[in-house]
């Protein structure tokens, strides 16, 4: 450990050519700053070849350091001594009765560049947030609302339906009581299925014949287009539809 020309300290392991002198100086530092430790125990740890020493040297003299031992197979290190000379202390607050803690370091993260990495990640996320997508086209076809889960990309972005929330389209319409309308809707469905002209719609579309229907969004868009065409081209049918819906109690306009 040496002091740079700018006056700041730089950490490094004690070099072998100066091991004995630096270890002896650190032994004295540990002895003065850790009076409850016996000198024999400190000597045993500091000069043990299994232990490593990190020294802080100022003007050629160690002013503090760390004596530690690494356990490579268990992927952790044990700090035995950590002390500074009294005249170099006081830069940070000293807490008594602190709880021993540890943290796990990810080997894929360069922690000396942690701030720059986090900033880069934030910039990447902000770039994605600012990206403008073309938006939904189904509303141009007359659709007034669609289930949230039908919005493309929402699930991929991490959205999950709240627990207990209904995914039906009816639950997304403000003021609609699906339970109250259920009997009337069942009657309408039963009448439609029993109609003589309903046969093309009773069975699901065969994917091998019509590959277009691959999502709820496309199905809703096509059905809305059908209803729009009916309103434009079959005014009589439109009135008939309104009348039947009013009779079922499902149309209050």
TrEMBL record:
GO biological process, one term: positive regulation of transcription by RNA polymerase II
Stretch list, region Disordered: 1-25
Domain of life: Eukaryota
Keywords: Bromodomain
UniProt GO molecular function: histone H3 acetyltransferase activity
GO CC, one annotated term: ATAC complex
Domain named Bromo: residues: 174-250
Alphabetical list of InterPro entries matching this protein: Bromodomain, Bromodomain-like_sf, GCN5
SUPFAM superfamilies noted in UniProt: Bromodomain (SSF47370)
UniProt-recorded name of the protein: Bromo domain-containing protein
Organism name: Leptidea sinapis
Organismal lineage: Eukaryota, Metazoa, Ecdysozoa, Arthropoda, Hexapoda
């Amino acid at each position: 450990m040496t002091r740079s020309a700018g006056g700041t300290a730089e950490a490094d392991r004690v070099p072998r050519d100066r091991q004995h002198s630096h270890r002896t100086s650190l032994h004295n530092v540990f002895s003065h700053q850790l009076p409850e430790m016996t000198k024999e125990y400190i000597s045993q740890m500091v000069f043990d070849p299994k232990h490593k020493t990190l020294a802080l040297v100022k003007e050629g003299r160690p002013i503090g350091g760390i004596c530690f031992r690494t356990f490579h197979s268990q992927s952790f290190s044990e700090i035995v001594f950590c002390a500074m000379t009294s005249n170099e202390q006081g830069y940070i607050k000293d807490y008594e009765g602190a709880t021993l803690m540890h943290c796990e370091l990810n080997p894929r993260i360069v922690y000396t560049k942690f701030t720059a990495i986090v900033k880069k990640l934030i910039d990447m996320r902000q770039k994605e947030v600012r990206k403008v997508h073309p938006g939904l086209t189904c509303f141009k076809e007359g659709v007034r609302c669609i289930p949230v889960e039908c919005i493309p990309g929402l699930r991929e972005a991490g959205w999950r339906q709240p627990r207990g929330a209904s995914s039906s389209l009816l639950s997304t319409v403000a003021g609609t009581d699906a339970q109250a309308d259920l009997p009337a809707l069942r009657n309408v469905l039963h009448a439609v299925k029993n109609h003589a002209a309903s046969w093309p719609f009773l069975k699901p579309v065969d994917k091998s014949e019509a590959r277009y229907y691959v999502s709820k969004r496309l199905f809703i868009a096509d059905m809305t287009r059908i209803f729009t065409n009916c309103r434009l081209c079959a005014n009589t049918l439109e009135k008939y539809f309104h009348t039947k819906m009013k009779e079922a109690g499902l149309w209050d306009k």
